[in-house]
Amino acid sequence: MALRLILADDHALFRQGLKSLLALDASLSVVAEVERVADLPAVLDSTPCDVLLLDLQMDRSALGEIDVLARRARVVVVTASEQPADALAAIRAGASAVVFKRFAIETLREAIDAAHGGLVWLPPAIQAELRARAFQPSPERLSAREHEIVELVALGLRNAEIGRRLAISEATVKTHLNNVFHKLGVRDRVELVRHAIRDGLVRIDERRS
User: Closest by alpha carbon to 198, among 120, 139, 140, 113?
Assistant: First the structure.
């Protein structure tokens, strides 16, 4: 069954281009288009959706509505802003992924798949900064290994990929993740990344573009 997508963007030309791009993939189906954030609740009520592609600049209220919208569908923010602070704000608000419009052709499908799979996806430029920066230690809460795993989850790696990176079994990764979930009081990977960014477990210089 094709993934059902809703496009929320106030620029008709961009929506049409994005829709044409997505139409090339038979495993994706655009089921609705929305021009205003205020119209999204009614559209989501009437149209089953797996992933919502949301333009962060379409309305001043867009960022504040992500938390509510994310309860109805996975939210992939598609934005012209390439400021790390804006991307991280969207993740904190409840988005599963952030895609820069300038690189949408190359990265959008990967972000959609990650979001639909319950992962967090960030643009490669921000991933690179995360790789280059260590998070602040909190030894009373997480072990060094657990910190490593949190960082790799924030980079969007799946359990098998984390296991290969750290030379441990996938079962061991799952055990560490369950311990992290319990210690931090989060339910899943999306909440984990949101918590890690908010509390400084993963560090990024938000002033850089």
Answer: 120
